[in-house]
Amino acid sequence: MAAVASMPASFWASSPSVPTKSRTTFSNVKSRLSLPLNKSHSFSNFFPTFPSRFSLRSSGFSLTTPISASSSSGNADYRQEPATKVKFQASLSIPGCSESLSLVGTGYREKVFALIGVKVYAVGLHVNESIFGKLDAWRGRSAAEMMKDSFLFETIFKVPMEKSISIVLVRDVDGKTFWDSLNEAISPRIKSPSPDDETALSTFRSILGGRPLKKGTSIVLAWMNSAQMLVCVSSSSDATTPSSVDAKIESANVTSALFDVFLGSNAISPSLKASVTNGLEVALKRRP
C-alpha cells in the first residue's frame, strides 16, 4: 500500500487505459487490483510487498457490460458494479435532495501503471427520473450512438433536476492524494477561474484534503442545478450513504467541470459512461 500511496497525483487523475482484448485477475492477494496481463510475472520491481509471482486467469472485458443483477439487503434494492463488486442502491435518498434518485449506471476508476491495473473506486450515476422525459430526442437510439453524442450528456447536466455521482472507495486513499488527482482533472476544464471558482475549489479541497479516506468510504456529488452542487462524505467506511451535507458548491464552472470529468468526452471512467448509456437506452425504450 505504501508504494501505491506514494504515486504522483497524475497517476490517479489521467484518463485510464482500457484493455481491449483481455483482463486477468489474481486470487491470492486481497481483491483490490485487476492486472491486465496474460501470464505470470514478477512484480517485485514495482511493488516489493507483493508476492513475487501470481497465477492469473483471463476474463473478458467490454465497455458495454451492463449493471449486474439486482440484490436485496433489508428493504433496500441494490445493483452490483461487476468489476469491483460494490453495490449501489437502486433508489438513493441524499441529504439536501427533494426526491429519491434512480440508478442509471455504474463503473469504476482505474489506472494502469507498470502493467498493473489499479482500481481506485466504484462510481454510480443516479438521476431524478423526470430527466428521462427531457431526452425524447434520443429515444430509439442505441447505447453505442448515445456514447458518442456529447450533447446528450450536456442536456442531462443542464436539465434543472437533481442528479448525483456516488463514489465508493475500494482501497484506502489519502485525502490529499484524492483531492490532488481530482483537481488535476478539473483544472484543465476551467481555463480562467473566477473568484467564485477559486472559492468553490478551496471549499472542496478543505473537505477532502484533510481526512483519510478508507476503503468503503462514500463521496456523493449531488447537482441541484447546473450552478449548485452538494458534497456529502460518509462518516465511516461502514456507512453506505452519507447522512449529512458537508458543503455546498456554488460555481457554474466547477459544477460543470466535475460533471464533465465523469461523463464528458474524455471521461475518467469509460465503464461508467458506457453503463449509463446502456441504462438510458433501456429507460427511454420503456417510456410510454
Automatic annotation (TrEMBL):
InterPro entries: Chalcone_isomerase, Chalcone_isomerase_3-sand, Chalcone_isomerase_bundle_sf, Chalcone_isomerase_sf. One of its GO terms (molecular function) is intramolecular lyase activity. SUPFAM superfamilies: Chalcone isomerase (SSF54626). Pfam families: Chalcone. Residues 12-21 have a biased composition (Polar residues). One of its GO terms (biological process) is fatty acid metabolic process. Residues 85-280 form the Chalcone isomerase domain. Coiled coil: none annotated. GO terms for cellular component: chloroplast stroma. Residues 1-21 are annotated as: Disordered. Belongs to the chalcone isomerase family. This is Chalcone-flavonone isomerase family protein.
